[in-house]
Amino acid sequence: MSAMIGEILTLVIMALALGMDAFSVGLGMGMYNLRRRQIFKIGLTIGLFHVWMPLVGILAGKFLSAKFGTFASLIGGLLLIILGVQMIWGSFKKGDEKVMTPVGFGLIVFALSVSLDSFSLGLTLGIYGAKTIMVIICFGIVATLQAWAGLLLGRKVQGWIGPYSEALGGTILLAFGVKLLPLFW
């Protein structure tokens, strides 16, 4: 029984660490002037991606080398950089339609960018034989809650700093994307 509690505690700690990107990026994206319904959908989508990506990673972890994790970080970083630049650019082009928003395809790109590292961790957990159901439930719930917290806090901050909030949000996404790039570690 205590071994199971220890395993769950370890997974929760991993999920919290892994979900910090969902919180941080949610903080930036929350400054995009989102409605509560959009925040709810974005959080759920991120949570679902944090279920599917480690699941696929766990399954693939039995077959792939650990070097794939670097590739996933590279792709995730590049996606966040693209989103950040688009938000910064969009903040200076008032009145024009945004190129990418956290709706539809933009939401998929956003959720994918913050969940690619969970794929990498899934690879590792698959190699070590972690309990798949416990991993995906834990990662999904924690990522959803952290994304909601970041989005709601970002929405609040957006109200405080007004028209500069979208540029600040884009800068946060851009900086986080650069941080994820393996070249800068």
Automatic annotation (TrEMBL):
Record membrane topology: Multi-pass membrane protein
Cell location: Cell membrane
Entry's Gene Ontology cellular component terms: plasma membrane
Transmembrane portions of the chain: 6-27, 39-59, 71-92, 104-127, 133-154, 166-184
Keywords: Cell membrane, Ion transport, Manganese, Membrane, Transmembrane, Transmembrane helix, Transport
InterPro entries according to UniProt: Mntp/YtaF (IPR003810), Put_MntP (IPR022929)
GO MF assignments: manganese ion transmembrane transporter activity
Signal peptide bounds: none
Membrane found in the keyword field: yes
Keyword Phosphoprotein part of the UniProt annotation: no
Purpose of the protein: Probably functions as a manganese efflux pump.
Record family assignment: Belongs to the MntP (TC 9.B.29) family.
Record protein name field: Putative manganese efflux pump MntP
Organism in which the protein naturally occurs: Bacillus salipaludis
